[in-house]
TrEMBL record:
Its EC number is 2.4.1.142. Keywords: Endoplasmic reticulum, Glycosyltransferase, Membrane, Phosphoprotein, Signal-anchor, Transferase, Transmembrane, Transmembrane helix. It is a single-pass membrane protein. One of its GO terms (cellular component) is endoplasmic reticulum membrane. Mannosyltransferase that operates in the biosynthetic pathway of dolichol-linked oligosaccharides, the glycan precursors employed in protein asparagine (N)-glycosylation. The assembly of dolichol-linked oligosaccharides begins on the cytosolic side of the endoplasmic reticulum membrane and finishes in its lumen. The sequential addition of sugars to dolichol pyrophosphate produces dolichol-linked oligosaccharides containing fourteen sugars, including two GlcNAcs, nine mannoses and three glucoses. This is Chitobiosyldiphosphodolichol beta-mannosyltransferase. Belongs to the glycosyltransferase group 1 family. Glycosyltransferase 33 subfamily. Its main location: endoplasmic reticulum. Residues 272-424 form the Glycosyl transferase family domain. It is found in: Endoplasmic reticulum membrane. Pathway: Protein modification; protein glycosylation.
Amino acid sequence: MAGVCAALALAAGAVVLAAMLWRRRAVAAGGAGRVCVAVLGDLGRSPRMQYHALSLARHGRDVALLGYLRDRPHGDVLRSGRIRLVPVSDLQGLRVGPKLFQYVLKVIVQAIQLLYTMLKIEQPSYILLQNPPGLPGIAVAWAACLFWRSKLIIDWHNYGFTIMSLTHGRNHPLVRMAKWYEKLCGRLSDHNLCVTNAMKEDLWLNCNIRAVTLYDKPAAYFKETPLELQHPLFLKLAKDHEPFRPRTESVSWSAQSSAFTEVDEKNGEVIKPRGRPALLISSTSWTEDEDFSVLLKALEGYEHSISEGAKLPSLVCVITGKGPLKDYYNGLINQLHFKHIQICTPWLEAEDYPLLLGSADLGVCLHKSSSGLDLPMKVVDMFGCCLPVCAIHFECLHELVKHEENGLIFKDSDELAEQLKMLFSGFPSLEGKLHSFRKNLRASKQPRWDESWDQTVLPLLGHTE
């Protein structure tokens, strides 16, 4: 432990020294209203940071959006004339020596690489950094701010050390070192944002860091999808995913109708066919903080009820996303033999994801916060589409999901199975709790991201220079 900390401290010192000596020249404070929005991760899978960039651009700021370029960011980001993507190379092949040595080496190389990238951009007035991952990002961003005479804002989505503990355990030397680093370096920021009031309180009590709560809010394009847009989306997905095709045409699909929509021959309007399946959707990063065996076991219970004569609709269960455990869970899914449930795991384009959420009948969230202090953004997006949700319980979930009001909270697979059977009883009738939850979401009229950002973040930035 001491050796690792010493090595990282030495590396951090070298990074800071390099920042001070690199291109020695006088740098005036300011930055002409420019902001660097940075995440040491995939920009395409960092929606909140993309939203920050779009909000800054909307207020006349030039934005350098810095991170890995694996998946394509949203089209609004790509089309913005004020947002410039700044790629960071994704490190591969640092597999030399023991795992601990590999990790330390990766952190050192990432620190040098990230600092070099941050010092190549035009001088920003602010660096807005996502945490996690904060190692080595916080120290590097602070060093870059010293060089540029800029201000550092950290957006706390969670704690990195609690995510690491899912794999290594809380007492592992790396986890203890990461916790020490996060608390120490987190105090170097000028401003802090966080995603829940629970995290705001924890940052103050345990880290002596003052933060402002900026709840995740849906972007304007998360909304209910009209039938005329649902139909082409389902037809598009049906080309690659059989569950979107009508079961009666599964062998010779005509590509004119889907499992959920068809065109009325009399008037040419899009309608929902009788006897259609219910569309259940979940999204995930396929990581350790989401146990999808809970959903699979609940679906087994649902299937068993239909087999025993319960009058319930067939289900199409769509699980979107990419991540390290996807192959593992696909293996479990392939072992299931359902007659009334179909499961598919597509990766959706950024523009198609909100359309599918807005077309679904029910959302399921299996995110269990590693710290108990963050909220699942996927539920925020579902609520933006007026989609009721069943979400697994953890400590601060009540800040988002109101049980029996906009959805249901469950603790295990048996409870989820009972909720699915209750909600889909009588489907697709406009009676019952599923419809009541949707009506409540429509009536709630929660503020969208732009409004919330203007009220919370804009005052921190002052006036555009």
